[in-house]
Amino acid sequence: MAIKVEHELHNRRRGRNMGVGLLLVGFVAIVFGLTVVKVLQLGDANQFETFDHVARPQIIPQDGGE
Amino acid sequence: MTDATLHETTYEASMGDYFALLKPRVMSLVVFTALVGLLVAPVPVHPFIGFVGILCIAVGAGASGALNMWWDADIDAKMKRTAKRPIPDGRVQPGEALAIGVALAGFSVILLALATNLVAAGLLAFTIFFYAVVYSMWLKRSTPQNIVIGGAAGAFPPMVGWAVATGGIGIESVLMFALIFMWTPPHFWALALFVKTDYGDAGVPMLTETHGRRVTRNHVLIYTVLLVPVALGLAFTSIGGPVYLVTAIVMNAWFLKGAYDIWTRNDADAEADKYAVEIRVFKVSLYYLFAHFGALLADAALRGAGV
């Protein structure tokens, strides 16, 4: 017995659904790429940790950090 | 339910129908001029950020195209050239075009702000507003100067590209804007002289119909004369160079000669040779814009190579 019932709408909209899927994948790739580029442009990656607004003793040199 | 309504409800708009809402041909010109604005700027941009910036500008231009098609669906249906657009042809519902236009406009502006800077995003937002509201909703149906002021929307992309790189506005980017802004009227009116349009039937005031073809010929010459100092002036800014200067001198002389030829003719002459001069000048105007922006790119490449 077939578990999956294909509605004819699925066939009719296949092209559109594929298109929307590809656009979403593209959007994810763009956000990921931007994140990588922006983080790498910071130079010192430790700066990135300072954005979380939490005291992090390990990144302050006199408290035992590098 | 009649057969006709059955047909209407079962047609599924394809991706291609939605893509056509974004006016891909206009988009290609926008991408080219925005890319030149970005590449000639004195500040280097990371290639991926530059790519995202150009993509946002292209999507923003597409969004304003969709909004324009939503607003103008009634007149598009009356004109032969535009009757096959997705909305008048019944392939896309007006509400869908509005939703796509608004969504893509917001999306492109916010992503541009996050990826680059607020100046570029603000300029892009203003460009979309200018094309969709100032041009489409307000000027297009109310004044024969519609394409003069509306041409500003097409002139903004290099300024946005420049702002993506520099985060600001400079004399160079303003002159690139002015170059396209002043070029649009003679380019468009040369076309209007030889294409038999049905703007009149649709109730859109075009200079050829409201003031006649003689006045249009005068306007082509006046705007071309005003364009020349803008085009030559750009050669003496930081983005100008020898290639641009030579290109500008040759192309402006060529375009000016064409505009003069259009001015000295009347419609009897034009009918006699099937608008040969008007068609030639329209083609020259296309080469004109591509040559100027191509030359800016060539000079930027020469500077980059240390020549």
Descriptors for this entry?
heterodimer; A: 66 residues; mainly alpha; 3 helices; elongated; B: 307 residues; Tetracycline Repressor, domain 2
Describe the structure in your own words.
The complex is a heterodimer of chains A (66) and B (307). Chain A has a domain of 40 residues. Chain A has 66 residues and is mainly α. Chain A contains 3 helices and no strands. In chain B, α3 runs parallel beside α9, α7 packs antiparallel against α9 and α9 packs antiparallel against α10. Chain B is built from 16 helices and no strands. Chain B has 2 domains: 153 residues, UbiA prenyltransferase (Tetracycline Repressor, domain 2, Orthogonal Bundle), CATH 1.10.357; 138 residues. Chain B is flat, with a radius of gyration of 21 Å. Chain B has 307 residues and is mostly helical. Helix content of chain B is 77%, strand content 0%. The relative contact order of chain B is 0.11. At the A-B interface, α2 of A face α4 and α6 of B.
Q: Roughly how many Å is the radius of gyration of chain B?
A: 21 Å
Helix segment count of chain A? 3
Mean pLDDT of chain A: 79
End-to-end Cα distance of chain A: 65 Å
- Return the structural class of chain A: mainly alpha
Would you tell me the structural class of the helices and strands of chain B?
mainly alpha
Oligomer: heterodimer
CATH architecture of the largest domain in chain B: Orthogonal Bundle
Helical residue percent of chain B? over 70%
Largest sheet of chain B: none
**What is the H-and-E element order of chain B?**
HHHHHHHHHHHHHHHH
Shape descriptor of chain A reads: elongated
Report strand % of chain B.
under 5%
List the domain count of chain B as a whole number.
2
Distance between the termini of chain B: 73 Å
- Which spans of chain A of ≥5 residues are poorly predicted at pLDDT below 50? none
